[in-house]
Specification:
This protein has 225 residues and is of the alpha+beta class.
Length: 225
Amino acid sequence: MSLNLDTEDDFCLEENRFKQCCAEFIKHSQQIGDGWEWKSIKDFPDGYMSKTHFQMKNGNTPSIFKDNTRESDEQTFTHVEDALDDSQVAGICATSEVIRYEYHVLYSSSYEVPVLYFRACFLDGRPLTLDEIWEGVHECYRARLLEGPWDTITQQEHPLLGQPFFVLHPCRTKEFMTPVLANSQRENRNINYITSWLSIVGPVVGLNLPLSYAKLVSEQNTKTD
């Protein structure tokens, strides 16, 4: 997905371009079995990208999932994909502290950027608290984020579902995406905004992208050179 940017004012993401980037991202996700899908809301013109996966509280992948995860993804993922449904997980990992994570990517018309909403609960349905979410943030991010937690992870109502979700606040998205987009413009390279953005914000809350997303963009650029 080529981003033709002429000025700094163009470093925002229009909603139509957001949907195009999501469609491209989901297409590759389906090809590699990464679990992302587009969900629409009845009587609403908007939709969102969604993915669910399971993770042990200590950050390890339950062994039952390892055979269900693509070998190429195991090299880049520390978390398990949504290989089995909740009832199967409960039966196999009944004595383990398995956490079900649900990630949603929505468009913010106010900030003109994507926003990552997520929620997490144990298999008995108990939701994780904000403190437990912070405990799960990797050490390499935690110290910096805790300097201004209300600018990063907060709990808000999901704008489409009306349910409580955690959210990575989008107020700084344009700030850290501008140099990424500017660099691609200088090099005349195509990028997928969603892929670049999610590879930056996802790891903060345990969501890592397989390397094949980056390889796909690289291959597309090679074909256009």
